[in-house]
Amino acid sequence: MTATTTTPVTVAPARAVRQPSARLRAWATRAPLLPALIFMIAVTQLPFVATLVISFFDWNALYPDARRFTGLDNYRQVLTDADLRHSVWTTVLLTATVVLVSLVLGLVLALLLDRKFRGRGVVRTLLIAPFLIVPVAAALLWKHVLYNPEYGLLNGLLHYVGGPQPDWISRTPLLAVEASLVWQWTPFMMLILLAGLQSRDHEQIEAARVDGANDWQIFRHLTLPHLRRYLELGALLGSIYIVQNFDAVFTITSGGLGTANLPYTVYQSFYQAHENGLASAAGVLVVIGSIVIATFALRVVSSLFREEVARS
Amino acid sequence: MTAAVRRNGLGLVAWLAGIVFFLPIAWMALTSFHSEQDAATNPPSLTASLTLDGYREFFGTGGGASPWPALINSTVASVASTLLVLLLALPAAYALSIRRVRKWTDVLFFFLSTKMLPVVAGLLPIYLFAKNTGLLDNIWLLVLLHTSMNLPIAVWMMQSFLSEIPVAVIEAARVDGARLPTVLARVIAPIALPGIAATALICFIFSWNELLFARVLTGVVAETAPVFLTGFITSQGLFLAKVCAASLVVSLPVLAAGFAAQDKLVQGLSLGAVK
Q: Does B143 touch chain A (CB under 8 A)?
């Protein structure tokens, strides 16, 4: 990398005559960045500050005159309310299950696709397709076309083998939501891991093979360590997207049967129950959870990024 | 087991996995061309005659609301927000790759960190703001929010594409007396264009898919296609063919954009961390 771009800010401050023009040039360098930066601060940071403020108020939109400052009361309520606590647990369970299962499936599929076989491109396309269905449409597909107890495809297939005809969504509601999300997110994991597999050092693998290492040893001692950061990246990005999931929960169960996760609860508590203060406190909790995940995510992304910068 | 048998065997397993993952989509496509009676049989009727009734029903010729306003709104929201994203992200990426500001990595990571702030973090204040300013049910507010959702992704992707342009090429053009607009148009644009196109397609997909903002901030006039689809959440008697037709039609632009951007998809989804 060549850092030859002149940084006028480093010009010695002693030469007072040159300073205005140097400062001007620094601003000229910065100028293209500013619209995007200001836009992001205005649209994402300011509303969050407002959420933070509202979270300290007892505020039901139906009774705007009764609005008053309550300190941490909303947080106490969110953390002690059985339903809300349950939605915290649901969020954790939903995110962890979907991320882990789709990561494992994605790894298997990536390993299968990493080898040459006839029609590899077609199979890759078939596997990516679930990720390219609009999330609401995918959820509708699972809810009505696959899960429906009377004419859904799952029970239709079971019918052929004389199996039982369960009502999938009411029997295992959370699992029903998770399965549809795993179907959509496995391709995402597969793509990231496939990119990881293809960036392996092939000479090293050949050398190991010449030295008599078998497939399992190569996978265990070369491939897996190399993939570690790609697995982390997939897990963390997946967590960030799935923690926020609203579409599948909203569509498949409408938050019922114990499947309401935090984003759904936040939506429901201000959009339907008009509890602005409570909703904001729950929202702040989602943010805290995300920050924990994001701290790790940023670390992984920045380590990959630094490597990239160092290489170029 | 010989190596050839095993290779073919694993190829077969890969094909099988591909088919299993694609099966729900194939079934959705087939059902969308069945009549409602044939769509709702158990066991499923594979060989039933094909009809366009599901599509006719969806497009509202059989009564019910027409999806066209929602499809048009979605098109406006995703195309306009994508253009706005490019307008903001291109100069920003330029200042983060070619003519770098100081602490450019910090700025880059600030953009990334906003992507990790969940939508629900600011949803209520945005909703209250929209309600008090009369912007509720206005597609242009959604355009702004979708822009904020996609801008970090675009800045990261574009930054990584522009960084690939060798500085020497730009310097050479400068030495030859080319001014900035010429350098941008003749040197940078041709190299960066495929990356810009991929970025645009990915932003388009995310905007087209988005439900939570659209659901909360639009209602009647500015309703988008995903919000229109939520009308199918509760069963309405025999309506499987119609649901399948609707889901497929609404997903078509995403499928097209996704396959067009296939090679760059992973880079966009990983915010440029993976190439």
A: no
Give the separation between CA A202 and CA A199, rounded to whole angstroms. 9
CATH, residue B122: 1.10.3720.10
Return the structure tokens found at B42.
């158990």
CATH code assigned at A106:
1.10.3720.10
Q: How far is A17 from chain B (nearest CA, A)?
A: 23
Residue B99, helix vs strand vs coil? coil
Residues A224, A265: one domain? yes
Number of folded domains that form chain B: 1
- Kindly tell me the sign of the dihedral angle through the C-alpha atoms of B120, B121, B123, B124: positive
User: Do A88 and A285 touch, CB atoms closer than 8 A?
Assistant: yes
Q: How far apart are CA A189 and CA A276, in angstroms?
A: 36
Under an 8 A CB cutoff, do B92 and A115 touch?
A: no
* ipTM of the complex model: 0.89
Question: Rounded to two decimals, what is the model's pTM?
Answer: 0.87
pLDDT digits (tens, 9 = 90+) for A256-306: 888 888 889 888 888 887 888 888 888 888 888 778 877 777 777 777 777
C-alpha B187/C-alpha B203 separation (Å) is 25
**Contact assignment for B121 to A51 by CB distance below 8 Å:** yes
Summarised one tens digit per residue, pLDDT across range A51-109 is 888 888 888 877 777 777 887 888 888 888 888 788 888 988 999 999 999 999 999 99
Residues A152 and A293 both lie in one domain:
yes
- On whether any CB of chain A is under 8 Å from the CB of B238, the answer is no
Give chain B positions within 8 Å (CB) of A134.
Answer: 208-209, 225-226, 229, 247, 250-251, 254
Residues in chain B with CB shorter than 8 Å from the CB of A113 are 14
**Does residue A138 fall inside a structural domain?**
yes
Pick from B8, B27, B99: which is nearest to A145 by CB?
B27
> Is A105 in the same domain as A228?
yes
Same-domain status, A149 and A236? yes
